[in-house]
Amino acid sequence: MKKHLTRLLPNGHISINVVLLMVLVLIASSTPFSRLLAAELVVVAFGDSTTAPRGELKVFADLLQHELVGRKLDAKVINAGVGGNTTRRAMSRFETDVLAKQPDIVIIQFGINDAAVDVWKTPPAVKPRVSLQEYEANMRNFIRQLKSRRIQVVLMTPNCLSWTPKLKKLYGKSPYLPDEESGFNVLLVQYAKVVHRIGREELVPVVDVYTAFEKHGKEKGRSVDDLLLDGMHPNRKGQQIVFELLKASAPFKMGSTSGETR
Length: 262
Known about the structure:
This protein is of the alpha/beta class. It has helices at residues 16-29, 33-38, 60-70, 87-91, 94-97, 112-115, 132-148, 165-171, 188-202, 209-218, 236-247; strands at residues 41-47, 75-81, 105-109, 152-156, 206-207. The chain has a 5-stranded parallel β-sheet, sandwiched between helices. Helix 3 (60-70) links the parallel strand 1 (41-47) and strand 2. The model is unreliable at 1-14, 29-38 and 255-262 (pLDDT under 50).
């Protein structure tokens, strides 16, 4: 948050948004006040391909950067999403891609790759790439390392998925249910539930992307497909929903904003 206290409005007063965000981060993460004055606000978005940059599409990290700058904050949002990552693979880059950036806030979203059962292989896999138990352990490891450094954590559930012809060809067999609209989510929903439990037990906010997408798909005349590029990755509309949910969560919430957090 470098130079926040010298960033003045035309009337000579410090922006109330600057003060409020500094106080929120200070309360939520117990970050020493001297650290808040010493550097810019650094946010790291840590995840898989649903977090990672995607060409010209503005992903939620891009939208968050624009939002924070719009609040007159000296802020930098680092996108540390890597396609194909499970929590196991992400563990090997946690030090360099997250901790080394000395962030104030870290957003964590994994699950789609962890929960995937590669039934398209020969012979077909019969278990998820990362078990539910290991996934939980890895997520808690990330959180506890961050909290030990007084870094605020925001968890996000993975977005739910939707069948496409290509995905059904690859994954359309047990344990998945290709004849059911939500049959591609039979395992993923359990990973999303674990994120909620971790959030409650570790006392960190959870942004419920999974439920938001699912609710959209249940509304009349709508489908989860409306929010996805390819049955997996959020499109422009989906990214906007993720951003709105994130913006309404601690420590990003400012005033009255819409979104669904837990």
